[in-house]
Specification:
Strand content: over 45%
Helix content: 10-25%
Structural class: mainly beta
Shape: flat
């Protein structure tokens, strides 16, 4: 049973390749496409591309990684997970950076908040970081 659970956890990102989801914020429609991409470390990252729903083609409004292998150096390994949530008329992008050893002084969290305007535009209204064992959000 445990092997099946591990297999499903491993395969879920791969099986979601090309998946398209839609959501709304402040009466503005968005679509989000998932792509599994190779990286320079020989592993796979899960990239999310967010578009305005009404636009069929073109550049995404923004992108983020629901999982990204950020490689490492001789002392440490790094990876990141990001989530996007809708809160009222805002999109909140929360990035959580992980490291194997905990010895590098990098921010553990990053929070970006975008205000969604009725004219199908986004405005970045908050962009702060939080370091390990701190409760304060600061400029980097």
């Amino acid at each position: 049973m445990m092997r099946i659970a591990i297999l499903l956890i491993v395969l879920t990102p791969i099986l979601s390749f090309g998946q398209l989801r839609t959501f709304h914020c402040n009466d503005v429609g968005f679509k989000m496409k998932t792509e599994i991409i190779s990286n320079e470390w020989g592993t796979l990252d899960t990239l999310q591309l967010v578009y305005f729903e009404e636009k069929e083609e073109g550049d995404p409004v923004f992108t983020f990684y629901s999982y990204q292998d950020q490689g490492g150096d001789c002392n440490n390994l790094f990876w990141m997970k990001e989530t996007l949530t809708v809160e009222g008329n805002q999109l909140v992008l929360l990035s959580h950076r992980f490291q194997k050893t905990g010895i590098d002084p990098i921010p553990e969290w990053r929070k970006r908040i975008y205000s969604v305007k009725a004219d199908n535009s986004l405005e970045l209204i908050y962009d702060r970081y939080k370091y390990y064992e701190s409760s304060d959000w600061v400029d980097e």
